Structure formats: structure tokens, C-alpha cells
Amino acid sequence: MNEYFEVIRGGINSTFQDEGRKNFSHIGLPFSGVMDKRNFVIANTIINNQKEDPVLEFAYQGPSLKYFGNKRFIVITGDVNFKITKNNKKEILGNCYKTIEIDNGDIIDIISTNKSVYGYFTVNGGFKINRVWGSYSTTVRAGVGPNKGNKLLNGQNIKLNKSNVIQSRSLNFVNSKIEFIRVIKGTNFQFFSDQSKRDFFSKVFVVTKLTDRMGMRLEGVKLKNLKKTNIKSEGLVKGTIQVPADGNPIILLSDHGTIGGYPKFGVVISADYDKLIQLPPGSKIKFKEILLKDAENLYKIYNMETNNILNKIK
Predict the structure, then answer these.
(1) Which end of the chain is least crowded, N or C, by CB within 10 Å?
(2) If 0-12 CB within 10 Å is exposed, 13-18 middle and 19+ buried, where does residue 167 land?
(3) Which helix (H) or strand (E) holds 92?
């Protein structure tokens, strides 16, 4: 029996993602990949899939999917409101971080994220899609990735792999927040006035609506550039904080371009990236400067914390 989901509603920005596309920046192809790595890893671990298997990532409002096939398990991670309408029309409110059994004709409606941005959905056995350029990640702007490089569209079908054996599993987990987003100095940090440097690490910035998988625009005190507001285009990494001529910082996210010509004030550390991208528009951000060696140690701690969380899955 061919088992699949029919997409009733695609959602706002539902795409297949994995850990990202490696070693193609030199030809201008973004790394992409999931925005919240920890919730991605948790989803695949709870459902007993391989850690590199693709998931469906959604923002704000997720998809509504009707299932056709034999009994299976699904899991949703993040801070997400969703419900399941059984084929007998009974409605069940869903719980995140817990396997939920679905049967032929059931409808999963991912209603919204709750005071956050991204959530993750997968099914035991995984989605039957092909890697593109060595990855399951989708970059919609470039039209690259599975699903012909598109986000989910109403009416399409998502084929599934053969179901693997799994028992009910769950995790008691809460998506925590931190007081500061920690930053190391960028390569053009010296371009900015001393006052702007002090302001960046002492004032509050606000996430604007001009935020997506490519970048997060901030509003707050304007950063004054004393040297050049444009530079020769240079390579970029995820988390880079660029400052254009208007003085409002832009944080580059997973679908960022591979080169850019705005001065680079700093870089958000990898250990804080998951927390950063879950801040919806209107959220307030404070930044804290740390040294590179501290950022490296914090990333080791982040990985240890993730492993400790995975060990608590029952």
C-alpha cells in the first residue's frame, strides 16, 4: 500500500529540511538547513528515525495534512498548537515531544506556533524524497532542494518510506529562553564608533517583521560607521551581524547569501542560534560580547546539553 499525506493546507512556510547543504558556498549555494537544530534532532530521535533524515519545518502556521495508509506514529517538536481529527471525526489536542498514533483518514492540523516561530513535524519511517546537492534542505529563493525547491503546496501528496518499528516515546521538554544573545566581534568591528559599540551591548533591540529564513532585521539605536558603509564583498557565515548604511543591524540566518558587502559588526555564537531564531517579530533582544574561546566552550556545553536531553527520551 502506498502511504502518503495529502496537503490540505501548505502553511505559511513549510519546507523539507535537514542539517544543511555542505561545501557549496563557493558556487553561491546557501547552506540552508533547519533553523532550530536541537528541535530537529529531538524530533528524529523521538520518532526513531536517523538523525540525518529530513523533517518538515514550518513557521508560525504549519500545514494541515490528511493521512492515507496503515497505522503510524508522528511527532511534532517546538512550542506548537495542533490537533488531530480522527476518521471518526473525534478531535484530539496534540502534545509536542510525544509520539502520536495516526490511522487512515486522520487529519493533522498544525494550527500555530506559540510565542515562537519554528516547529518540526516528522513521521516514523520518514518522507520519501530525494537529496539534492547532497542534502534534503530546501532553499525556496534559489528553487533548490526536494519538492522541486518549493514549500508545501495545497493539494500535493507527500509519499512516505516504509514504516519502521517503534513504540510510544516521549520527552518532558520545555523550550527555554536566555536573557542575552551572545556575540563575538566581527571582522569590521573597528569600523564603528565607541559609542555604537557600547550601545549595541547595552541597549535593547527589537525584531522587526522584515525577518525570514534569510535574515533578521533589528530596530533600535542606530550603529554609526566611521569608516565605510560598504566594503568589497566577502564570504559570510550564519549568525553574522551586518550593518548597512541606515545603521540598523541585520543578522544573517540559515538561507543567507554566501557573500556580502555590508560591514560585519559581530557574529551570534552557534550555542545561541536556536534561541535567536525562535524570537518572533516584536521581541526584544539584548546582546552580550564574549571571546571566541568562550564561544567554543559554550558550543561544547550546548552539544552536551543536547545529548543529555536525548537521553531522557522514554
Answers:
(1) N
(2) exposed
(3) strand 91-93
The dihedral built from the CA positions of residue 189, 281, 239 and 251, taken in this order, carries a sign that is: negative
For domain 181-310, give the CATH superfamily: Cyclophilin-like (2.40.100.10)
Confidence of residue 164 (pLDDT cuts 50, 70, 90): confident
Note the pTM of the prediction, 2 decimals: 0.96
Region(s) of the chain under CATH 2.40.100.10: 181-310
Distances from the Cα of 76 to the Cα of 95, 158, 190, 222, 250, angstroms: 8, 17, 44, 39, 30
- Long-range contact set of residues 281-286: C-beta below 8 Å, sequence gap at least 24: 281/207, 281/208, 281/209, 281/211, 282/206, 282/207, 283/206, 283/207, 284/204, 284/205, 284/206, 284/207, 285/181, 285/204, 285/205, 285/206, 285/207, 285/218, 286/179, 286/180, 286/181, 286/204, 286/205
Q: Mean of the per-residue pLDDT values for the chain?
A: 96
Predicted confidence (pLDDT) per residue in 166-193, tens digit: 889 999 999 988 889 999 999 999 999 9
